[in-house]
Amino acid sequence: FRATASHNTIQINGWEQCQFERDRSHVFQLHNDTQTVVEKYSRQSDNSTFVGTHTGFSRLRADMRCKRSLSLTPGKLTITDEVTNLKPNDKVVIRYHLDPEVEVQVSDNEARFTNDGESVTVHWADELCGTVERVRHSRAYGEWEDAQTLKISTTIRQDGDGQFIVKFFWT
What we know:
Elements: E1 10-12, E2 37-43, E3 48-54, E4 66-73, E5 76-86, E6 91-97, E7 103-107, E8 110-115, E9 118-124, E10 129-137, E11 145-155, E12 160-169
Antiparallel strand pairs: 1-6, 2-3, 3-4, 4-5, 5-12, 6-11, 7-8, 8-9, 9-12, 10-11
């Protein structure tokens, strides 16, 4: 559950953001490969913003930097992931892990999450593909159960920087 794929974050080519210690006596030790920086955080009555960056993949490709921006307004959360120095055929995956009780329906470029009569609709750009995967979810150390993950992915076509926007709506 330490792996990048086990978190609600972007992953490039299946790479890990942080190196793991192979020695089992250091199972919870991670290298500080990400060099994470909070660039902005603001909270107001009707709008909250967070911007953070990391360089966790730069040990695998020079000058690769990830930036995540979150904007929360009444009824809407927008998550924007930006990645520098992408190459053709890079595989970009963004995962959103869900509570085991959440039901998911996916169609075209949107998903609908429902639980206890409440719902959230998720939208992403046409060039992205959304699927649902069955995964193991851990609520506490040593415990796990089956759950679902919304996996949004794409394959890069040309050199450059990429921007991936996912919007969550509710009433």
